[in-house]
Specification:
Layout: H1 18-27, E1 42-46, E2 51-55, H2 58-67, H3 76-86, H4 95-105, H5 111-131, E3 139-140, H6 141-157, H7 165-178, H8 204-228, H9 235-241, H10 253-284, H11 286-298, H12 310-322, E4 329-332, E5 337-339, E6 342-344, E7 349-352, H13 354-357, H14 381-386, H15 401-418, E8 419-423, E9 431-433, E10 437-439, E11 444-449
Helix pairs in contact: 5-6, 5-15, 6-10, 7-8, 8-9, 8-10, 10-12, 10-15, 11-12, 11-15, 12-15
């Protein structure tokens, strides 16, 4: 008997008016897209103001992300929704500004530094497991994973737990911000940055200002500790003291606030999403949960012991394939190009969609099915190489990709060591894109002690 597939949004009809599409888009990016995109190599979308092209062709993806990334920089239409919070962070910038930022930030996430961050990740996972209250009632798991993921960020970035007063305030403010802005807002349909501010939802800018005020306080406190030689050797200290090898300059206070904002967004919001979906999938497929639980019981809590969490790692990879936290990435063509014999004019938007690419029916075997075993299957190697982008790829690959993979595996092991998770048959989660891929009405699970 074939196992049921995990839930995904119902795709819209192929033909709708621009007004209908805008309404669907505003409600949820994923369900606004037509079903044909799950097998198309390329698709063109037209608005009265610009054209957009989604590309699922692996050759085109390599061209945009690897071979000629400077010709396809990040589109500022992404910034329309995120700039009030992220400012000029490394997630939004392009060109020389972005290259300078990466030169300063990258050393903090090199392999040796990940070993240094591991104790903070493990401590957050164990603390999160200790806070959980098992019982007969179903609980909303995204709220729990958000709290744990935020704890990871504060412990590894600033060496403080989530219970710290300022950390708790940032977490609360960010929770208010999380669903207030989609990845792209309606400004994406209109020309010129002068249009963009009027489409922020009520309270979005105010909440973003509050988050940045709190981050500024944390950063100023850390700069004071650095000046006295009393700062802990964590990610914040590393980034604040690293000099650009070309100019010898470090980040200014406003620049560091921008970077901390994206670390919190990328390291908290995306990790919370991935962990919640992974737990749901394990509850939906209890035989895989049993395999991961065995590994969790044997995990000794050491960095070296991570190598033994092989099936847990494959489960987390498969969760990232089915529910990539960032479902779409947008680039902008800076010169005319030809994609699959079609002219893409300068200024056109180029959309890369991990959501559709990871479920592409002409690339993956059983694309909508949950199969962690595919990660050890030789037949899947080409699909994994050509069509797996949970952290993007090329020069702009996510800085924290390695961090996120360790974090996801460690947190799963910490929770599965203590708890057994069960689905709520009456409340199947429906994925929707906000800042990341979350469930429209939460992910409800019941968990009990093992």
């Amino acid at each position: 008997m074939t196992e049921p597939h995990p839930p995904k949004p119902q795709a819209r009809a192929d033909k709708v008016s621009l007004w209908q599409y805008m309404r669907l888009f505003r409600r949820d990016i994923l369900s606004a897209q037509p079903a044909r995109l799950y097998r198309a190599w390329m698709a063109e979308f037209r608005t009265p103001f610009f054209r957009s092209y989604m590309i699922n062709d692996p050759d085109l993806i390599r061209r945009v992300l690897h071979e000629d990334p400077d010709a396809f920089p990040k589109s500022d239409r992404i910034g329309a929704g995120l700039r009030p919070l992220l400012g000029d962070s490394v997630f939004l910038t392009n060109g020389e500004v972005w290259k300078r930022q990466r030169r300063i930030i990258d050393p903090a996430f090199e392999g040796g530094r990940l070993r240094d961050a591991f104790p903070g990740i493990l401590a957050a996972g164990r603390a999160g497991a200790a806070r959980m209250t098992p019982g007969a009632e179903f609980q909303e798991i995204e709220a729990i994973t958000s709290h744990i993921a935020a704890d990871v960020i504060f412990r590894t970035l600033f060496s403080i737990p989530i219970e710290d007063e300022t950390a708790a305030q940032v977490f609360t403010a960010f929770r208010d911000y999380q669903r207030s802005q989609p990845i792209l807002n309606l400004a994406a349909f209109l020309p010129g940055p002068r249009w963009m501010p009027r489409f922020f939802r009520r309270g979005t800018k105010k909440t973003a200002r509050e988050i940045r005020r709190l981050i500024t306080r944390l950063t100023e406190d850390r700069l004071a500790l650095i000046a006295t030689g009393e700062a802990p050797d964590d990610l914040a200290t590393k980034i604040l003291t690293t000099k650009d090898p070309q100019t010898g300059q470090t980040f200014t206070l406003p620049e560091m606030v921008d970077q901390v904002a994206i670390f919190f967004l990328a390291g908290h919001e995306t990790s919370a999403s991935a962990l919640a979906w992974a737990l749901y999938l394990l509850a939906l497929y209890p035989e895989w949960q049993k395999k991961a639980a065995v590994e969790a019981q044997d995990f000794d809590g050491s960095f070296a012991g991570l190598s033994k969490l092989k099936q847990t790692r494959d489960i987390f990879r498969e969760a990232l394939r089915l529910y990539p936290p960032v479902p779409m990435m947008v680039r902008e063509a800076t010169q005319d190009a030809v994609f699959r014999k079609r002219t893409v004019q300068s200024g056109a938007q180029v959309v890369l969609s991990p959501w559709h690419l990871h479920r592409h029916s002409r690339i993956w075997s059983d694309p909508d099915g949950f199969d962690p075993g595919r990660w050890q299957d030789d037949e899947s190697k080409r699909a994994i190489r050509d069509a797996y982008l949970p952290f993007s790829s090329g020069p702009r690959v996510c800085i924290g990709a390695g961090f996120a993979m360790i974090e996801g595996v460690v947190l799963l092991a910490a929770l599965l060591k203590n708890y057994r998770f069960e689905i709520d048959p009456a409340r199947a989660p429906v994925p929707a894109a906000h800042l990341t891929v979350r469930s429209q009405s939460g992910i409800w699970l019941r968990f009990g002690l093992r």
